[in-house]
Amino acid sequence: MIDSHCHLADEAFAADLEAVVARANEAGVERALIILAAGDMNEAARASRVETLWPGARVSIGVHPHAAHEFAGDPQRAADLVRLQVAATPSSRAIGEVGLDYHYDFSPRDVQQQVFRAQIRLARELQTPVVIHTREADADAIAVLREEGGGDVRGVLHCFTGDAALARAGLDLGFYISFAGIVTFPKAADLRETVKVVPLDRLLAETDSPFLAPVPYRGKRNEPAHVARVIAALAGIHQVDAGDLAGRITANFHALFRP
User: What local confidence, expressed as pLDDT, does residue 12 receive?
Assistant: First the structure.
C-alpha cells in the first residue's frame, strides 16, 4: 500500500515518529508522499528524520494557497523558492500542494491565482507532477491547469471532495484523483457515488494525516497506517478485492511520481 499524501513532517508526529513509521510498515504501507511547505526549514529537517526512519518516503514541495499572500506583488518568488528547495532535495518527486482555497480566503484570490500559475509553469518546465489543493474554487483551479499546464502537466487532485463534473474535468486533463478518509464518513454518500466515476487506473488513496482520520478513528490524529481503511472503502465502492486495489493504486502512484 501507498499513502499518496500525508504531513508526516508535521510537528504533530515529532514525539512518536518512530512508532508511527513502524505502524505504517506493519500495516503494509511501503511508501508515502510527504507534503512540505516551501521555505519551512523546520519542517524540512523533520522530513529528513522521516527519511532516515523510512527510506521509502518521498516528498512534494510547494507554496500552499493559504501562504500565497506572502508572495503578493512577486508571485514568481514563490516558484523560485520551490525550485531551489526541489533542487536541494533528492527525495522530491512533485510540486505541491498548490492550488486555490476560497473557503478560508487566507490569501486574496487574485494572489492565490498568480502564485498557483507560477508554480504550474514551474512544474511544466521541470516536467514534474503537481499535487493540487482546491476548495470552493474548482472552476478557477481547472482553468489555471488548462491555461498554464498546456496539457503537459500531470498530477493529482488530492483529498477529493468534489462532484462528478470536477472529477471528469481532472481526468480529462490526465490527472489522478485521490480520496482520503472522508469516503468512510456516514454523511459522505455523494462522495462515494463520485468515486464510481474514477477508473481504477486513475485512483489514489491518502490519509492527509494528521487530519481526516477515517472511521473508526475519526476525531483522533490520523497516520499513514490508516490508509488501509481508505483503500478498503474504495474497494467496497468499486466492488473489487481490497488487496487487488491496493496493488493497482501502488502501480498508479509509481506511474505518476516515479519514486
Answer: 97
